Amino acid sequence: MKLTTNSLLRGFLFGTLVWCHTHANAQKPEPLETPLLEKAYTHFKESQLTERRFGYDKIAPLIESRSTVFEQQVLGKSVEGRPLNALTYGTGPTRVLLWSQMHGDESTATMALFDLFNFLEGSGEDDFAAIRKVLQEKLTIRFIPMVNPDGAERFQRRNALHIDLNRDAIRQSSPEAIILKAARDDFEPEFGFNLHDQNAYYNASGTSNPATISVLAPAYNEAREVNEGREKAMKVIVGMNRVLQEEIPGNVGKYNDTFEPRAFGDNFQKWGTSTILIESGAYPNDPEKQYIRKLNFMIILNALYEIATGIYAELEASAYQAIPDNASRLMDLLIKNVRSEINGYRYVTDIGIRRRVRYQEGIRYEQGEVADWGDLSIYYGYEELYAEGMTVTKGNVCEQETAIADLSREEVLDLLREGYLAIKTSETNKGMVHDLPILIVTGEQLPDLEPSLSNAPNFLLEKDGEYLYAVVNGNLIDLQSPGNKSFKQRVQ
Length: 492
Ligand SMILES: [Zn+2]
What we know:
The protein has two domains: about 30-325, Zn peptidases (Aminopeptidase), CATH 3.40.630.10; about 330-490, Urease, subunit C, domain 1. The chain has helices at about 5-15, 20-25, 35-45, 55-65, 110-120, 130-140, 150-155, 175-185, 230-245, 265-270, 290-310, 320, 410-415, and strands at about 70-75, 85-90, 95-100, 140-145, 190-195, 205, 215, 250-255, 275-280, 325, 330-340, 345-360, 365-375, 380-385, 390-395, 395-400, 420-425, 435, 440, 460-465, 465-470, 475-480, 490. The protein is built from 13 helices and 23 strands. The model is unreliable at about 1-25 (pLDDT under 50). The chain is elongated and about 75 Å long. Helix 3 (about 35-45) crosses helix 5 and helix 3 (about 35-45) packs across helix 11. The strands form six sheets. An eight-stranded mixed beta sheet has the order 1-2-4-3-5-9-7-8, with helices on both faces. It has a four-stranded mixed beta sheet with strand order 13-12-11-14, with no helix packed on it. It has about 500 residues and is of the alpha/beta class. Zinc ion (ZN) binds next to loops. Zinc ion binds near residues 103, 106 and 166.
């Protein structure tokens, strides 16, 4: 019997929960169907969390207001005194520990955990009651959301002591690392979920697909042997990958399993907890990672269900090995086969550009960089331009001082078509974030617009005396049909 919505409803109509029914007949429980997991997300998504960047203040009320289905505990405080909370659900014999955001700028799974809290608190009479009942009876689940609240406050990887908590599992120099280790020793979980984000440039090896989700059953020793505990983690991952391949076929990678003796995941595995790493990567047109948050919710709920029912144990660990490895071969923009001329020497090159996300007083903007220059035929781009016959060309600075408010997008595009890449502003608002597709400079220090590996990616692509494309702060603008593409950058 499949646990579809209909079968669950039928279960209620006949006054019997599906799980009890299945259990009574000693039938094997069936895996959850993907549409049901999607439906659960739609119902229980936490509406207070909408963007990747948030601090402890944002989650504090969401923890305080939890119902009594959770037992709550403050495990300790961060360097700057922010609480690390544990929320415990269920009374079953199998203990599962999930912890998120030990790197402060890796918040995707934290959002998904709050969605999951809403799900677990859901009404006893909805479509998902049978699932909750299994989780509640078979598992004791302990969640530690946001292990690094001081890092989250600054949206940075490390904690307030400049320590990478995921390199502090053994030395224990940080209060947050001490708390996480103590939580493990106190709870002794059979399963552990170590929840992280990875950068946007990982792809599934051999393909141009971003590794939207990467998984790993970390090694517990240098030889990367597989013992019973690690194999159990691999099997749980195989169940998660079934869901992922239905949602994002080909966008799953297997994280490198080199043993890292200082990391928590590897040590949890060594300490006897079957540990699963989830790394949330990127998905096209999902800058706030809200779709990836949904995927996290779906695969975590699926994994908990398969642990609770024992479904995972029937899966083949060899299917884990078949997941493609992570590679790091993606660029935001890849310009191929463009002509360049330096010191009178003409040659053909590719230019790989990446754009870093930064924040200015909470406002998101991008900062482009030339990541590589040369034969980049082994790389892929989220956006690619085959620039055969075009020449990468230096742009000019328009010295006529202008107020930003007086500049229209059309005027700016005309300036680009005339070969200008930067314009002086008459104002002194250096650092202000704007969304015009041209560099705006205050004039104190003019930008170096020479196209090069070491300069920011600002140049024009010329063919037969005409500028066909502009690259501004790493963003490609088609000067013949520019569309509505917009991006944010800072006044320099
Ligand atoms: Zn991380």
